[in-house]
Amino acid sequence: MIDLTTTLNKLHFKTPLMNAAGVHCATTTELDDLLDSQAGGLVTKSATLQPRTGNPDPRYANLPFGSINSMGLPNQGLDYYLNYANATALTHPDFPILLSLAGQSLAENLQMLERIQASAFSGLTELNLSCPNVPGKPQIGYDFDQMKTILTAVFQTFNQPLGIKLPPYFDLAQFDLVADILNQFPLAFINTINSVGNGLFINLETETTVIKPKGGFGGIGGSYVKPVALANVRAFRQRLNPAIQIIGTGGVVSGGDLFELILCGADVVQIGTTLAQEGTPAFGRILTELERIMAQKGYATLADFRGNLKTL
Ligand SMILES: O=C1NC(=O)NC(C(=O)O)N1
């Protein structure tokens, strides 16, 4: 009998797979779809205090091996998602809910955290420090001093479990530096990776970009980024305090991809591009594929192999 359960801080997940913030989670209709799927939990679209329309269309495109997006944080505003989370907690008390925040200033993030803390919300909060698509706003995850300042201010006021969504890093010295910063804070989890920022895709026939915002520059997701996601999950698992759990995100298409992220140390795994392209049936397909692989290898639980990647 295969046991796919896992935990993230105080939340119990029946399955280790869920959506990535931004995909199939901007409206109550989409969020209800996730509730009714085989996902083990859900995260809401990264919220700002007030609703945002985001960047001009076309701002998303499917690519041969993934996707490119420059959505620009279109969302219904924090209260919409906070109200959904609190209503859903009454109808689905055991379904893990994460709220994602992407305030455009420290003050806005502190204001949103204060509102969450004052509410009945009992899920987990994910502070998105890595949106690559707001014109003129560099990714906080690449500004280490600013990240430290924000985390210091956040943990002075917010006493609920908090995680952060990180951009991908590409240098071992950066993994060391970022892990040293994160280990100074009582984080519940990190979520790595966000899309690989500011990629470019060209339509050869028309000699044009495929999305409109930022001259066609956008976050890359899907199979293109799996090697980067695996490395970031592995590097942070090797460096972070064991009390800081890891959500692994990036490039998961199959049960094998899901297995590999858990093998690198992920406690929960998210899908973005695959969910955007296949819809919620992707959860059941990927989980069935994972169960088959675990059965073949003789693993009964995720803990039997989590973090056990072997090197040569
Ligand atoms: O954090 C984000 N990552 C992305 O790839 N896109 C969205 C967005 O643009 O809203 N935000």
Automatic annotation (TrEMBL):
FMN binds at residues 45-46, 128, 165, 193, 222, 250-251, 272-273. Substrate binds at residues 45, 69-73, 128, 194-195. GO terms for molecular function: dihydroorotate dehydrogenase (fumarate) activity. Binds 1 FMN per subunit. The keyword Transmembrane does not apply. It is found in: Cytoplasm. The active site is at 131 (nucleophile). GO terms for biological process: 'de novo' pyrimidine nucleobase biosynthetic process; 'de novo' UMP biosynthetic process. It comes from the Bacteria. Coiled coil: none annotated. It catalyses: (S)-dihydroorotate + A = orotate + AH2; (S)-dihydroorotate + fumarate = orotate + succinate. GO terms for cellular component: cytoplasm. Its cofactor is FMN. It holds the Pfam family DHO_dh. InterPro entries: Aldolase_TIM, DHO_dehydrogenase, DHOD_1A, Dihydro_DH_chainA_dom2, Dihydroorotate_DH_1, Dihydroorotate_DH_1_2, Dihydroorotate_DH_cat, Dihydroorotate_DH_CS. Pathway: Pyrimidine metabolism; UMP biosynthesis via de novo pathway. The keyword rRNA-binding does not apply. Keywords: Cytoplasm, Flavoprotein, FMN, Oxidoreductase, Pyrimidine biosynthesis. Residues 4-294 form the Dihydroorotate dehydrogenase catalytic domain. Catalyzes the conversion of dihydroorotate to orotate with fumarate as the electron acceptor. Homodimer. HAMAP family: DHO_dh_type1. This is Dihydroorotate dehydrogenase. It comes from Lactobacillus selangorensis.
